[in-house]
């Protein structure tokens, strides 16, 4: 592993997380139990909703969302190709067909509602909005589109836990919102996730599916409830551990201060990189306060050698990333769906040129200056 001077991501873990884990270890209950329930209540309160279901990871959250909607063969789900692959995977694993839509362009890496609208067919059942990097997708337009066609709106809010925006808290506007608490995410548990749903019946179906669709949970049996249970659906084990949720409670308390620090880093980045010819800072038109800033993406001018730029930054000890390769060009999807280069020109162009710079709570003015300096000195836009 390279010893980076400036990491792309870095979770902030303190003595409080260690103490919380130790407390669980001495409690005698390690899987979803009272700490999980308390984390759910607190996370829901942070979002301003009634309740949430904590799960083992963000992919599980998305899988439970598509299962709860009953999606299957013959159904189509429209989602951006520019996303982490797990959303397309869970749609496909349910037997439904992912239909990939374009993002808006260099200035906005969220899905284009007009392009989504153009892909709606009589088979379409759901739309997926991804809040790329923590920036809100166009929720009013997407919610209106879903309503007009009687479709479910799923928000992949993996990049945006507890993020208020003028159009609502991200993940709570559509029918189902999915969150990830993976090790690199803003709220890091190692592995973890959560689901919220507008309809309490859907939320409780998700809670049931999370634990084998048992009508009586292990905790209830442990507490002396009925020892026999029924199974009323095909469920999975997507429960989180108490250890993860104990870390999550501490991380959740730290989230507002962490969000402030991310915002300050982004303000500094915007100032430091403003002068580079041809460099696009996506979402520059969004108010800094309205994003979770999971990523700090930049889009390089056409013709720039991204790998060479990454190599130069690597030599300076600066870790960068690409978010993401377009899903529709992965072997599994292009062969399954008959897609190829040229199917989604906007997405293909932007994903060739996107680069993520380091962003986490340890990025202060000094680190921003170092990164900006390294980018500037390596900057050789194609002529
Ligand atoms: C991380 C992530 C996921 C998957 O979450 P896991 O917890 O890693 O399973 C899904 N969508 C997006 C946008 C993500 O960033």
Helix-strand layout with pairing:
Blueprint lengths: L14 H13 L6 H14 L5 E3 L2 H11 L7 E5 L5 H8 L3 E5 L1 E3 L2 E4 L1 H6 L5 E7 L8 H11 L2 E5 L7 E2 L2 E2 L6 E5 L12 E5 L2 H10 L8 H5 L19 H32 L22 E4 L6 H10 L15 H7 L7 H9 E4 L7 H14 L5
Parallel strand pairs: 2-3, 2-6, 6-7, 7-10
Antiparallel strand pairs: 1-11, 4-5, 8-9, 10-11, 12-13
The chain binds pyridoxal-5'-phosphate (PLP).
Keywords: Aminotransferase, Pyridoxal phosphate, Transferase
Cofactor: pyridoxal 5'-phosphate
GO biological process, one term: polysaccharide biosynthetic process
How would you describe this protein?
This is Lipopolysaccharide biosynthesis protein. Belongs to the DegT/DnrJ/EryC1 family. L-glutamine:2-deoxy-scyllo-inosose/scyllo-inosose aminotransferase subfamily. InterPro entries: DegT/StrS_aminotransferase, PyrdxlP-dep_Trfase, PyrdxlP-dep_Trfase_major, PyrdxlP-dep_Trfase_small. It is a single chain. This protein is α/β, with parallel strands linked by helices and 383 residues long. It folds into 2 domains: 15-250, Aspartate Aminotransferase, domain 2, CATH 3.40.640; 256-378, Alpha-Beta Complex (Aspartate Aminotransferase, domain 1), CATH 3.90.1150. 39% of the residues lie in helices and 14% in strands. It contains 13 helices and 13 strands. The chain has helices spanning 15-27, 34-47, 58-68, 86-93, 113-118, 139-149, 200-209, 218-222, 242-273, 306-315, 331-337, 345-353, 365-378, and strands spanning 53-55, 76-80, 97-101, 103-105, 108-111, 124-130, 152-156, 164-165, 168-169, 176-180, 193-197, 296-299, 354-357. The strands form 4 sheets. It has a 7-stranded mixed beta sheet, with helices on both faces. A two-stranded antiparallel ribbon has the order 4-5. It has a two-stranded antiparallel sheet with strand order 8-9. A hairpin with a 2-residue loop joins β8 and β9 (168-169). α3 packs parallel to α4 and α9 packs across α13 (365-378). The protein starts with 14 loop residues before the first helix and ends in a 5-residue tail after the last helix. The chain binds pyridoxal-5'-phosphate.
